[in-house]
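look at this fold:
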Amino acid sequence: MGTEKSQAAGAPATKRQFRIWRGDETGGDLKEYLVEVKEGEVVLDIIHRLQSTEAPDLACRWNCKAGKCGSCSVEINGKPKLACMTRMSTFTADETISVTPLRTFPIVRDLVTDVSFNYEKARETPAFAPPPGVTPGDYRMQQVDVERSQEFRKCIECFLCQTVCHVIRDHEENKPAFAGPRYFIRAAELDMHPLDARDDRKEYAQAEQGLGYCNITKCCTEVCPEHIKITDNGIIPMKERVVDRKYDPLVWLGNKIFRRGQVPQTSVTSEHSPGAVRTPAAGPPGFHSHAGASHDPEAEAQAQAGVNWHREVPKPTAPTLDESGKLPLTELTFDRPAAPSPFGEDVSFPLPPEHLNYAHPEQDKH
C-alpha cells in the first residue's frame, strides 16, 4: 500500500484496491484498479477519480451526490447501495472493494443499467383519483390522516428495493406479472390516502401488480436508503387488506347474499391492461381453453408455453335462486356458481396435468 500526503487537508492518502465491472450487454468482466483514497471520501468519489485518471470511458450514473436522487445505485461488494452514501471508512484497510451494476436490470455499459422496467410499472399504476367535485387547491385533510402514507413519499426511486427483490432478481420471467416493492408502497400510499376516490387499489395490487408473489423476506426494507419500512408498513398491510376482503367469512357471506361479487377482484384487468385478453361469448364446440376460456389463439399459445399473464378471468355468474326466489343451501356452502372456474366452463375436475394453465414450459422433457 503506497502512502502520500493529501493535497487538500494534509491527511494521508492511501492506495486502495478496487474491482470495477467493465463491459456492455454483450459481456464484460471485473477489472482491477489501484486508486488513491482520501479521508472522508465515498465510493462515488473514487469512481470520479478513476474517470479523471485511468478510466476516462468508465460509465456511471450520478446527479446530486447527496443521497436524494437515487441515480448512483450500484452493487458494492454484492450489496445494492448508493455510491454517494457509502463511505470508504466503512471498509478495512486491506479490503478489496468490488463495484458492479444492478444485477436485476439489463446492462447498458459498465455501471449503467436499463431501469425502464420501473418506469413501465409506474405508468401502469393508476394515478391519484380525487373525489368528484373537488378541484386542486380545495383538498383539505389533517396531518393525522396522512401520517401512515406520508412515509412512502420519501422514496427517491433508487430502485435498490427492486433490484434486491428475489422474485425478479432470480426470475426474469416474473417481471411481466410483478411490479415490485417500490410500486407496492405506491399502491399502499394511495389506498391509505384520505382523498383517493378509487376503491380497487387492493384488488389491483393483487390481480395486476403480483402482490401475492411477495413472501415478505424484508430484503427491500434492509437496503432502503430512506429507511422506509416497506414491508411492515406497506406490503403487509396491503396483504392484510386483500385477505380481509377476499377470505373473511363474513364478507364472503355478505357478498353471497347481497352483492354476489359485483366488483370481482379481476375487474381492474380490463381497465388497466391494454393487452388483456377479451373473452368472447362462446368458442368452437369441443374446444378446451387453456387461457381462461378466452379462445384467443395468441393467449392459447402463451398458456401452452407456460403462464398467460394477460388472461382475463371469467366474470361471476348470477345467483342461483330457487322457485321462491331464495338462495338454496348449496349456494351458501359451495362457491362454484359464485366464482366461475378460470379454466372455463367446459372443464371437468380434477384437471389433467396437460390442461393446467400454469404448466411448466419444460414439462414434456420429464
Summary: Residues 1-8, 259-294, 311-317, 334-347 have pLDDT under 50 and may be disordered. The first strand starts at residue 3 and ends at 5.
